Amino acid sequence: MRKQRRRTRSKHGKDRRVNWQLIALALAAAVGLARLGETFVQWQARQETFQEQSALQEPDELFRPEVGDPPYTIAVDAGHGGDDPGATGVVVERDMTAATAEALLRWLNADPHYIPVTTRDGYDVTANPTQRAQRANSQNPDLLLSIHGNSASTEAAGFECYPITPGRTWHRESVYFARLLAEGMEAAGSTLRGQRGVRYIYYENGQKVLAEANDLRVREEETFTLLEQSSCPAVLAEQCFVTSAADVERFGDADGCELAARVYYQAICSYFGTTPLESLP
């Protein structure tokens, strides 16, 4: 009988030790989960702080966007298209943007650092800006470039581009990319409009209102829909004036579209810090 009691006590003591081990493991797991939760909260807070800084600060000379590792997904948007011809002049804007986008896609497809995506199924497909933004966002791009052509009743000419506006997420990165585009177009022979080719557009009561790059006021009015709804840094480029014969000859005919596409490709490479291809295979 005594032996049986000793065995019983020994068994109970072993059970208690097992229980304490299970409790210790559970506590360790709980602590680990708490730390993991804290780490996620800290990461989330850093992301929110980063986005707030991106929205409110201008890129200085030392600024470089945080780009991560390649390959990078680039959304290429050919302005207008389908039933929407855009502006008409020496050339039709829809045709010029399609030719430039197609040339840019060739460069990006040839470069293993990039995965190009488009904002609709084809250049003959009609899609409004909201639909194109949704299509772009669904593919998780790292950068978006929307290609357009300008027009005027006068002999206006030159290049300008529009980044995401002050106060919006990705403003700083968008301005950084816009400056690279403008610098590249100037080096290729274009005249820069506004302040070094970078401007903002707002819609007030359905009318476009232009603001120069040094106007950093945070406004309630929205900019171009594609920029407003973009989930990544984005710029809308006005490649040239389709109403200017001289401008079209430089950047709007077949050779000009190839030249502009090369400039855009090099600007993308500069943004991500990759070495551009010297030629297409």
Structure explained in plain terms:
With 281 residues, the chain is an alpha/beta fold. It folds into 2 domains: 1-56; 72-272, Zn-dependent exopeptidases (Aminopeptidase), CATH 3.40.630.40. 46% of the residues lie in helices and 16% in strands. Strands 2-1-3-7-4 form a 5-stranded mixed sheet, sandwiched between helices. Strands 5-6 form a two-stranded antiparallel ribbon. The N and C termini lie far apart (91 Å). Residues 1-9 have low confidence and may be disordered. Keywords: Hydrolase.
DSSP strand count: 7
CATH architecture of the largest domain: 3-Layer(aba) Sandwich
Poorly predicted tracts of residues: 1-9
Please give the oligomerization state of what you see: single chain
User: CA-to-CA gap between the ends?
Assistant: 91 Å
Elements, N to C (H/E): HEHEHEEHEEHEHH
- Report the mean per-residue pLDDT as an integer: 87
Indicate the percent of residues in helices. 40-55%
Domain MurNAc-LAA: 133-269
Pfam family, one: Amidase_3
GO biological process, one term: peptidoglycan catabolic process
Protein name: N-acetylmuramoyl-L-alanine amidase
